[in-house]
Amino acid sequence: MRRWMTVLVVATTLLGCSADPYSLTSDPHSAQWNPALVGEPIQAVVAYVRMQPGDEIEFLGAEPIGVAQGASVRFLLSRPVIHDTGESVIGEDVEPLEHATATAAVASDSPDNTIGIVGELVADRPGRYEVTNVRLRYRLNGGPERVTEGIDTVWTVCAADDPEPAIDDCDGEEAPD
Question: What pTM, to 2 d.p., does this model score?
Fold first, then answer.
């Protein structure tokens, strides 16, 4: 019995150490709808990552899972921008995600350590497009490549040819094939 308990404690400890503190959730926390013009890029923060003090993440790439034909999506990194008012904004300033590295901004578990993964969608034709899942590839502290899937925000883009596209224009439409 004592040996079995020792094995259980060791296994639990190893599992706890191998758990990924940067896994994305597959259950969306929110939804966002944006109108867009066909051919014009539109951006939204689709996932948030709170950096742990002492960690460094090198982002190797990301891709949408299941976006309908007729739209392309690329992913960018957004570090927080701190305004004179003290307000921290994610999504205001973006940079290429691939091969970007990120570390915690402060030495404590703080919202200031949160970075954003921004999706940039370009629709080739009118329609409704949803980004509901993202596959993220990265290295944690120089280790092996890791892959995680999930998203914080379901992002729906309604694309139209009209200069003032309305979200209601796509209500009830199926995403293009």
Answer: 0.79
